[in-house]
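Researcher: Good morning. I'm working through a list of sequences from a screen, and I'd like to move beyond sequence-only analysis. For each chain I'm collecting a predicted structure so we can compare shapes side by side. This is the next one on the list. No need for commentary yet; just the structure.
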Amino acid sequence: MTTTIRRLLDLTVEDHTLTVPLVWGDPGDTRTIEIFARVISREGGETLPHLVFLQGGPGHEAPRPFHSSTSPAWLDEALTHYRVVMLDQRGTGLSSPVGDGDLERGSAAVAEYLTHLRADAIVRDCEAMREHLGAELWSVLGQSFGGFTTLAYLSTDANSLADVFITGA
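Model: Good morning. Structure tokens for this chain:
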């Protein structure tokens, strides 16, 4: 587990990396991957509740925060109410990304690996990140495939969710 903190104009960006099981629920499979998330807040917003953003795709990392003008477009409004968690879903961005180099392992090994990048595993990763951040509850914003993942989250861990927002799903 690693955490770094930096400033981006008036935004504070905390980078968090966790090591989690590749296969949740199978203690015999010892393979692990890294899960990466950025927690974004404004000065004075350090104690606001968390809102985790689950992006569309699958296969796309979370948007990177920019300022002037703030990107993504909804970030300004979200930061008035939440600390925003931009999670790179497993296999994307800085969360043990799948890439061309994986093809060297052979098609059968790659196909087996990809079976572990499903919505149910992303929910388990979210729960690990929520616990790491010390949040008893958090809210989720699911966009497109992230909306599908949010529905899976509601099916298994609704007691961890304060609010749920789904868009473009």
